[in-house]
Design goal:
Length: about 140
């Protein structure tokens, strides 16, 4: 048994290009799909120039702060419950869009907050919001 090249066996001299063509077609499809995504999709628009519009001077909301002991203050001025009721009644009568913001310490019992909400409601405050601070 000799190893050698006999005349009956011919060497294969052709390259099988079918896998190469398959890979190239897959790459072509990938490029066809991704090419439109790479192009910018924005429109260039020339916007008209305008002048600044004066703000409509909305009144600043009043902030009611309740500390851990249940003491109240409006914009850093300490008040009693009766003084709060009078002040809220006067502000609500003067301005229909008056807004009260309540900021309560997390140690304040809910009952105290509910009492002050009732005082605000009896005083005629229609817009009431709560302020919370994340991470406290």
């Amino acid at each position: 048994m000799a190893f050698g090249n006999s005349s009956e066996q011919n060497m294969m001299s052709e390259i099988n290009v079918t896998p190469l063509v398959d890979v190239m077609l897959v790459l072509l499809v990938v490029f066809i799909i991704t090419a439109p995504l790479l192009a910018p999709q924005s429109l260039k628009v020339n916007l008209p120039k305008t002048t600044r519009v004066a703000s409509d001077n909305k009144p600043q909301p009043v902030r009611l702060m309740i500390d851990a002991n249940g003491n109240i203050a409006i914009n850093e001025a300490h008040l009693s419950d009766e003084g709060l009721a009078e002040m809220l009644r006067a502000r609500a009568a003067a301005d229909a869009s008056f807004q009260l913001q309540i900021e309560a310490d997390k140690a304040v019992p809910y009952g105290r907050v509910a009492e002050l909400m009732a005082v605000a409601q009896r005083a005629g405050v229609a817009r009431l919001s709560f302020i919370t601070v994340a991470g406290r």
